[in-house]
Amino acid sequence: MLLNDPCQAATFRFVGCSFDASSGEAQLRYAFDDGAELIERIVFPEAPTLDPARRAAFDAALKLLHLIAGVSYFKAGVPAQIRVEKYAIDRDTADLLDELYLQGLGEFAYQNKLDLRGKIRFPVGAENATAAVSCGLPRRSLVPIGGGKDSLVSVELLKKIGEPATAVWVGNSALIAACAQATGLPMLNIQRQIAPELFELNRQGAWNGHIPVTAINSAILVVAAILYGFDAIAFSNEHSASSATLEYDGQAINHQWSKSFTFERRLHTYLQSHVAADLDYFSLLRPLSELAVTKRFAHLTQYHALFSSCNRNFRILGTRPADRWCGQCPKCHFVFLALAPFCTKPQLVQIFGRNLLDDESQTAGFDALLEYRHHKPFECVGEGRESRAAMYTLSQRAEWREDAIVQRFTHEILPQLDVTALALAPLLQPAAEHLLPARLTAVLDASG
Ligand SMILES: CC(=O)N[C@H]1[C@@H](OP(=O)(O)OP(=O)(O)OC[C@H]2O[C@@H](n3ccc(=O)[nH]c3=O)[C@H](O)[C@@H]2O)O[C@H](CO)[C@@H](O)[C@@H]1O[C@H](C)C(=O)N[C@@H](C)C(=O)N[C@@H](CCC(=O)O)C(=O)O
Ligand SMILES: Nc1ncnc2c1ncn2[C@@H]1O[C@H](COP(=O)(O)OP(=O)(O)OP(=O)(O)O)[C@@H](O)[C@H]1O
Question: What is the pTM of this model?
Fold first, then answer.
């Protein structure tokens, strides 16, 4: 199949979106210039008949999903012009998208040596919308499950305070399904099929790189919340996700931008004013650092043989690790290091099947986490100060201090650091910022 070269296109078109109530399939259509349509399909299983009170909210949510999910395709060509057909968007919507596309594609632009500043402009064709109204959403939470530790910590916090919740995931990962099953919560699995032509465009050399996938999952779950009736979407994005990966040319580049508090607040406000006034979008773990999360996860032994944070498990096309942890990537390195202060050594080695801290070939990977001679990796890992505090803690423990990577830290890196900045305890204190609805703030006490 030979497709138009998206890098030569003048315009990226949001061609239209639709929802088939009988099959539960949403179709999101895009194109470059007058090229073939790229159609993403998202299937909401056993979709109930839409409550008429929620019709307007559903239509607004579907358009928002169309606009946000377009980032996967837009990035293949990054044309100068954006056209939204079939419906018009207002200033607030355009501002939200301009920021999401610029910041969410920050890593993509940095890696591809592109400067997108001032170049992404969604066209405004409508007056600002009148304020959204409440649409009678029942009081219950959707908890997105990613297969990793964070969402499982959230699940257990919600159970502790008796919040009615459903575990939801996007895509067909068996690993995520097993974690969701183990929560014992009701489950909802939403299928997502990226337009296959995108993979062909990638093979033909289109622009490629990281996209703000949490924003896409968020928009899918907003549609689900309105369709099935949930008034809360409880993500599990920690405080540390707001820190930039690096600074470049005056711009903060954050791999995890769509997990940041900035994006959370932006989407939360937008949804309540433009989609449904009674829908709460927030992260339950926002006050917690990565280390505060791993401390809690260390006690959730029922999930230790099931979870994985290694993103190689979640590829659509590429090869996946045989045994849940590839042991080579930044996520494997970070989660090993961040759990180590809170687990016994045999427990941790059993989870990973090996001791990554006693493997000299992993030195560069751990150096990057410590921000020693490298910048923090482009992955969802904690702040450099968290990794340094965890490593320092291990260097003081008999069971870890002889291990190759820990020994090297002690002899080569530690003498260059200020020991007073390496304490674990301050990093375990909850931060004040969060958007939890009042009924859920009890989890902040339950998480102590
Ligand atoms: C699983 C993964 O990390 N994938 C990234 C990887 O993709 P790769 O080519 O190795 O394989 P596939 O996942 O099979 O994807 C094939 C191509 O499809 C495109 N694509 C995929 C999903 C999507 O939503 N939009 C897409 O455009 C893309 O062109 C793929 O090449 O490398 C890609 C290029 O850097 C990344 O775009 C892939 O990232 C996925 C979108 C993904 O799901 N990544 C998450 C695991 C991830 O990075 N999560 C973040 C959360 C932060 C955030 O929301 O920004 C994290 O954990 O750090
Ligand atoms: N396929 C998915 N479907 C729904 N939600 C997802 C999916 N993948 C990730 N998420 C959610 O996105 C957020 C960020 O994902 P992230 O990978 O950081 O979390 P995690 O998988 O719970 O933990 P870990 O940091 O150990 O990987 C979490 O709330 C997670 O539940």
Answer: 0.96
